[in-house]
């Protein structure tokens, strides 16, 4: 309805009511006061009608408090604070549901961060709390005091800009994860009250350990940066005793100067995942792994700035698949052995020239440990040096690489290979391989069409691209696209 239509509809009612209340009023001043009262009463009535309509039609008002509280839990911290001031009902829900404030993340700047942090912790009651990006130091120590007061029900505590040590001396029976990957930490024997709790994950940049610490005995995941100073290397050799149930160990930025301070002997029997990293030149971490080697380890990753050495033998553990990759920008090569089961061994090592004859020689020497390899993936530049490796792999049935030049010489080394996979990708382009790329690939294969090769499977082209690219019939081998048509031998 238009504004004029509303006026026409309301005019008779207003005129009738005005005539009734103004009847017998002799003075204009009284009439003006009467009109003001009438306007105010009209505004109140319209507001009440609008409120009632909103109540009858607003679906959010139909939500049970439990559903509304669940919605609040998914809001960022700032929005949860704002939502608690929208209405009386929303505020009541916010203040009576501790789970709404159980996830606290100060990943963005706030005014009065310390007071907001204290307020949020107080609203959690006894509910487990996960704190991420803990606020920085404040002059009144409000953040530190709040943490001390609530450590008994904090489950996750991640420091970012500041490290508060006082809370870490308080008992924390529910604490499962503690992280601060920027600031070093001195752990004392009375860490977390000096009692055994539920701590399972510890991630820190650098830590100094005491000789004994009951609170560390439950840690299963440990991630540390190697010591940069002698103070933090102290007692590092006791790590395996301090963490007897360790399942995952991640040590990064290890320094050769502190190699003798690392633990020696057998790793905990519970250890399943090991990651070692260093940037120090010529620091061979495979030698360190040789002393830690365990048949119970399912995943081992070593990244060092050293050439391939004889200690690589300790990383070869009867794999089923081998992957060789070259990182030209960082002058490194990566060798990964996968299987059996979930077992994985990965080594990233320095190699200035793109020449993997040393790797090939190492693999040939380890032929007994590679007897079960049935698949291998290598870069094109490594295919030549590694051709001799294929000959010592009796169960090899699958070979993958990224270029075609050495393809014709493959039957000399492995005449029994049943198939070859060519994976096609667009290097440096966001688009997918096109029909023109498929024709170019087939043109290269045509260069040795008479070579007696295994079946070639081409992977990487979309079905729609292949509709206009029928694979040719070559005398020496058969070509099949993974999602498209296949050719027949001529």
UniProtKB/TrEMBL annotation:
Gene3D superfamilies: 1.20.1280.50. Residues 63-103 form the F-box domain. Signal peptide: none annotated. SUPFAM superfamilies: F-box domain. InterPro entries: F-box-like_dom_sf, F-box_dom. This is F-box domain-containing protein. It comes from Auricularia subglabra (strain TFB-10046 / SS5).
């Amino acid at each position: 309805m238009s504004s004029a239509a509303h006026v026409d509809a309301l005019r008779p009612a207003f005129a009738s009511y005005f005539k009734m209340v103004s009847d017998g009023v002799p003075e204009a001043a009284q009439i003006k006061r009467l009109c003001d009262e009438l306007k105010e009463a009209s505004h109140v009535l319209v507001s009440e009608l609008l409120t009632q309509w909103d109540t009858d039609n607003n679906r959010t008002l139909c939500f049970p408090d439990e559903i509304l509280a669940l919605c609040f839990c998914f809001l960022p911290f700032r929005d949860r604070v704002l939502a608690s001031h929208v209405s009386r009902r929303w505020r009541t829900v916010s203040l009576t549901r501790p789970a709404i404030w159980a996830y606290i993340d100060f990943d963005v700047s706030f005014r009065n961060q310390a007071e907001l942090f204290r307020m949020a912790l107080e609203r959690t009651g006894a509910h487990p709390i996960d704190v991420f990006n803990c606020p920085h130091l404040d002059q009144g120590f409000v953040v530190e005091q709040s943490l001390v007061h609530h450590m008994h029900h904090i489950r996750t505590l991640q420091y970012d800009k500041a490290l508060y040590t006082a809370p870490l001396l308080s008992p924390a029976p529910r604490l499962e994860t503690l992280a601060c990957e920027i600031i070093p930490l001195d752990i004392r024997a009375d860490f977390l009250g000096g009692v055994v709790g539920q701590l399972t994950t510890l991630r820190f940049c650098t830590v100094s350990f005491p000789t004994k610490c009951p609170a560390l005995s439950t840690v299963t995941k440990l991630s540390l940066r190697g010591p940069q100073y002698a103070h933090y290397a102290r007692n590092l050799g006791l790590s395996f005793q301090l963490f007897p149930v360790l399942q995952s160990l991640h040590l990064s930025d290890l320094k050769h100067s502190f190699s003798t301070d690392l633990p020696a002997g057998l790793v905990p029997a519970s250890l399943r995942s090991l990651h070692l990293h260093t940037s120090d030149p010529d620091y061979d971490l495979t030698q360190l792994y040789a002393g830690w080697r365990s048949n119970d380890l399912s995943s081992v990753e070593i990244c060092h700035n050293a050439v391939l050495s004889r200690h690589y033998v300790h990383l070869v553990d009867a794999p089923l698949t081998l992957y060789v990759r070259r990182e030209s920008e960082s002058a490194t090569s990566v060798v990964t052995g996968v299987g059996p089961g979930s077992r994985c061994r990965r080594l990233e090592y320095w190699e200035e020239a793109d020449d993997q004859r040393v790797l090939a020689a190492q693999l040939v020497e380890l032929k007994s440990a590679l007897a079960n390899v049935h698949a291998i993936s290598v870069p094109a530049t490594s295919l030549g040096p590694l051709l001799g490796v294929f000959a010592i792999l009796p169960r090899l049935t699958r070979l993958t690489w990224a270029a075609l030049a050495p393809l014709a010489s493959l039957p000399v080394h492995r005449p029994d290979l049943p198939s070859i996979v060519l994976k096609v990708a667009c290097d440096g382009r966001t688009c997918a391989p096109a029909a023109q790329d498929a024709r170019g690939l087939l043109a290269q294969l045509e260069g040795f069409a008479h070579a007696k090769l295994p079946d070639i499977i081409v992977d990487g082209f979309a079905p729609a691209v292949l509709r206009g690219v029928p694979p040719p019939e070559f005398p020496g081998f058969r070509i099949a696209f993974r999602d498209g048509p296949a050719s027949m031998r001529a």
